[in-house]
Amino acid sequence: xxxxxxxxxxxxxxxxxxxxxxxxxxxxxxxxxxxxxxxxxxxxxxxxxxxxxxxxxxxxxxxxxxxxxxxxxxxxxxxxxxxxxxxxxxxxxxxxxxxxxxxxxxxxxxxxxxxxxxxxxxxxxxxxxxxxxxxxxxxxxxxxxxxxxxxxxxxxxxxxxxxxxxxxxxxxx
Length: 173
Description:
The model has no long low-confidence stretch (mean pLDDT 81). Strand 4 and strand 5 form a beta hairpin. The longest helix has 72 residues. Helices cover 58% and strands 27% of the residues. Strands 1, 2, 3, 4 and 5 form a five-stranded antiparallel beta sheet that branches. The chain has two domains: 73 residues; 88 residues, Ribosomal protein S6/Translation elongation factor EF1B (Alpha-Beta Plaits, 2-Layer Sandwich), CATH 3.30.70. It is an alpha+beta fold.
């Protein structure tokens, strides 16, 4: 009888072991697995956001480096926009070359391609055409950005040349 009960006891222990094993597995799958799946999804989303943030930071750094390189390469050009060329500066620069020079604003300043542009009309009298060339060189050597607008009007009058030309002076707004 003891052998029979021992055999039944072994079967009962095996049954309880299998029952508890599957009970633990079912509890794990019903309670822990959804939390693991949610964690896995959130972790994946976090990694994606982190990767995108790193890519954006790299692009910002590359853009900043490109801008710094551009500013370093074009320092003189960019600083020329900061120079404020006025009507008096143009007149004083050209008065040494011309007998009579006059600089007049042509309208109000306006925006062009993000820069403030002021038109000036320069007129005066010179002895010969070489002096006009020297005057144009003086205008182009001003500290700012100056654009000479063609045509240049030249007329001979009583042994002197009377001229007029237009300048566009660029500055920062």
